[in-house]
Each structure stands twice: as structure tokens, then as C-alpha cells.
Amino acid sequence: MTKLNWPFKFGYHVSASGAVWKAVERAFLLKCDTFQIFTSTPRGWRRPPIPEKDIDKFLNEAEKYNLRPIVIHLPYLPNFASPEEETWEKSKQVLTDELIKANLLDADYVVIHIGSHKGKGIEFGIKRVVSALTEVLVPSEFDSKRRLLLETSAGAKNQVGVKFEEIAQIIDAVNDERLGVCFDTCHVFAAGYDIRTPETLEKVKEQLDQTFGREKIYLIHANDSKFELGAGKDRHWHIGEGFIGKDGFRNFLSDPFFQKIPMILETPIKEKDDDARNLLTIRMLAKEALNS
Fold this sequence. Notes:
By secondary structure, the chain is of the alpha/beta class. It is 41% helix and 14% strand.
């Protein structure tokens, strides 16, 4: 398969431990086309600044290895739908900080988990998210060529963004061209959207077009699901070994629309070669999809 007719870009969420620029080398050594990082610890609120020398080296390494797009993922603690004022304020502060870092690192996308309304109801949660994103995005200098991406949710209790209609409501209300969507295959499958066959995938595409529109999807998180369709459980699994399966991924990768969107893998790491093995598997399935 020549590069001329190979539409795919596959990458991984890689560690930035030690220094942020080391993530670029790790992605290159893993043979990624693109990569995603946390800029600091994903399990804390503290956001130390990135040293200028590390920023310069990150930019140089990314250009040297030609790895694009560059994706920043927000840490786990922010909750933009939270009814708790302290959490909500901290979430906005973290997002503001990450948008600034995206400019500094010349990142293309910043991905966020939308959050949970904690039992206050979906309309409350949506309004809370809209307010938070509007307050942060409108006054920010987040470059207009970059995108803040709302990640599709898996369907756990009280989550916002499980249904495409909910994401559409947020995008319409915020009304900012910098806002887009990250389509997580495990999450949408857990939420009840079946991407495994041509017929069901066509229906999913129709639902996308009837809500926020396919053109709003800038990134795919390519993950298999450890649980069955509609289980509402966010449990990523190895490509082809879960309930989406090899046939499901082969079908998904056969679709010309999704082929052109960069894909980041976030599959489990239990063994040393798990990342390389999953990348090899999805590339093999992509090759089979193109040849089918």
C-alpha cells in the first residue's frame, strides 16, 4: 500500500513524563503518525508551567519527526457540568491553562471530557457546560486554527454528552468555530451507537448529520470495548479483541469519511508491547479495509 493512497493517520496517547518534549520521541519510536499527551499529571489540579527550553525542544522535535496533529487531553478531574462551584471554577481554570499551553506547543486539538451533572438533570448539565465553555473560550486567545473538542461520552449515570443531540445543544449554544467533536469508538458503542456493520454505521452517520454534523468531528479515539453494545461502561479494550471486534473495526475503517480523520488509540497497557501490537493490528485492519 503506497503512501499516496493511504488516507489513515494513527497514533497513541504517549507519556510526557520527565519533560514534555520526550513525548514526541516516544511517539516517533512507537511509529506513530500523530500523538496525544497530558501536559502534566492527569490526576491532580496543579498545573506547573512548561519551561521555555522544553517548549522549544518540543516544537523542534515535532517538526523534525513530522508528527501531526498534536493533541492535548485535559486531565480527569475537570467537570464542566458540575453543580459544585469549587470543582466548576477549577475546571475552567484548568481549561484556560491548557488552551494557553496548546498555543505554546502549537497543538492542533485540545480534548475534554464533558462531565457529569451529578443528578441535577441533563438540561442543568448542558447549561452548566455551555456557561463554562463560553466563559473560557470567548475571552481566550486560543488560536482560531486550533479546536477544542468535546469527547463523546460512554453513558455512565449522570454523564453529559452521551447522546449526539446533547453535544449538538452545547455546540449550538456556545456558537464558536473553535469547538468540535472527538468521536470515541468505545464510548459511542457503549452509548448504543453500533458502528460494526455497513447498515448500522450508515444509521450512525445519519444521526450525526441530524445533530451536530459529521464535519464537526476532527479526531477519533480508536478503542475497542470490553463490554457489549449499549452497556454504558467506559472500558477500553485491545483493537479487535472486544465487542466491536476485528470485523467491526474493518467495517469502520472501510468508510471513506472516517478514514480521513486522525485516530488516537487509548487501549490498555498491561504488557510492554501492547501499544505497538494495537497499532500493528489497526493498521493491518485498515489495509484489509482498503483492499476489500
